[in-house]
Structures are given as C-alpha cells and as structure tokens.
Amino acid sequence: MKRTFFLVLVVINTAFFSCIPYKDTVYLQNKSQATDSIQKIVEQQKPYRVQINDILNIRIKVTDQDNVQIFNPIGIGNLNASGAERAYFDGFTVDLHGNIRIPELGDMNVLGYTATEIETLITDKLLADQFKETANIFVTVKLTGLRYTTYGEIGSGMQTIYQERVNIFEAIANAGDITDVGNKKDVLIIRQYPEGQKIHHIDLTHVNVMNSPYYYIQPNDMIYVKPLKQKSWGTGTNVLQNIGAVATVLSLITTTILVFQRI
C-alpha cells in the first residue's frame, strides 16, 4: 500500500513540475502597470541605414521615360526568376565597399545612408550629369524585401517579407510560430552593426516588449529561440502528456522487475 501511494506521488509530482507553466506560453502579459507605449514606439522608429549585401530596388522616372530605360533594368538578368530571385537580378547589391553600380552614373557609396538620402544622392547626380530640372526627375529607392533568418525552436530558414516595417510577432508568425518547448521569455536577436554583430534579448511574454528598441526587426537580423529545459528532460508539455510518459516508464520498470523475479 505504501509503495502504491509513493508511486502515485511520484506520478503527480512529475506531471505537475515537469510540464510547461501557462505563464511561459502566453504572449504580451501585463506583468506590471501598463503605460501608454505609443509615443515610445514612435520615438524608436529610426530610418534604416543601408548595410553591405543589402539589395536595393531603384526606379527612376522622368518626363520622357524612354530616356531612363537603361537605369531600370527590369527582368534582364533572368526572365524566369520571380519573387526574391527576381529582386536579386533586378536590384542593386551593396558591395563590400558600400557601393552600388548604376548604369551611366558609375559607383555610388550608399553605406550607412537611408533610402531617402540615397534618392537625393541619385537625383542630384542625374541633374548634374544627365538631365535638367525640367525633366521632372522622380527617384524611388526601397529594400527588396525585409530578409531575416530564424532558427532554434521556430520554423528555421531565410525569411523574406515585402514590407518596410515588420515587428517581432509578424516575423515569428511568418516563420511558423514558436514551438511549445521554445523559450518565449528570452528570444535572441542577433543584429548587424558597422562595428560587428550584437546580441539582444527580448521577453515576448511581457507586454512591455512593444517598448523595446528591438520590437521592430531590421534586415539581416537573426532570430534564435532557445529550447526550454523541459525539452531536454523529454517530458510532455502538459499534465496529461507527463502522466502518460511517467506511466509508461513505471510500467516498463514494473514489468522488468516482475520478469527478473520469475527468473
């Protein structure tokens, strides 16, 4: 009787203490007094500055559009390409020196510039070398999608979203969400800077994550989701799964003991 009672206690303790707590699975919990975060978020949205290996989509329009065909090489790289591949062939890649090469205009250094600043650079260059102000030059510069990488307890691989701004939840949803054994409290964002890479930590279970300067991801970010310790234990994610796992183990142990007693 005592042995049975002891085994029941083991099953109950294992079931409750090895499962994943509810608070570790829920996003955006109000763990403290909530404050109006709108102003903080607006202040954090600084324009993105171009980095090495970024691909820019540049389009130039003037009154007589035939005069700028050479600047807009649409689809000449690979006519069968589509999506991100088409962007690679049609776009202008920032080289290791921070330059892009534009037909007729030559190399232009754009490293560390915003899209708006690059538009001004190209417009000024065109007015100085190619056109007059009466040509009504209109230049648009955009990144060819926001590319980032996800790995760990989340859908892994290179991801691309064709938006100018993407927050961390949109990025995660696009990759397929975090698994049940993923650590939402300590998600790592590995970000590129001119001086090198830096690792930033964010807690997705806290509502104040929306105030974080890393709430919106940037091109070339890497998002790593660590596993919870429950994964290494090999237990389930809830009480019923844990009871089943423990019951299976106890059944195996009991069967083994009975077999050896009969030998």
From TrEMBL:
Q: Where is the Polysaccharide export protein N-terminal domain?
A: 43-141
InterPro entries, alphabetized: Poly_export, Poly_export_N
The UniProt transmembrane annotation reads 239-260
Would the keyword Protein biosynthesis turn up in this protein's UniProt record? Answer: no
Q: Gene3D superfamilies attached here?
A: Outer membrane lipoprotein wza domain like, wza like domain
Q: Which UniProt keywords apply?
A: Membrane, Signal, Transmembrane, Transmembrane helix
A Gene Ontology molecular function term of the record: polysaccharide transmembrane transporter activity
Pfam family example for this protein? Poly_export
Q: What is this protein called?
A: Protein involved in gliding motility EpsA
Q: Which organism is it from?
A: Seonamhaeicola aphaedonensis
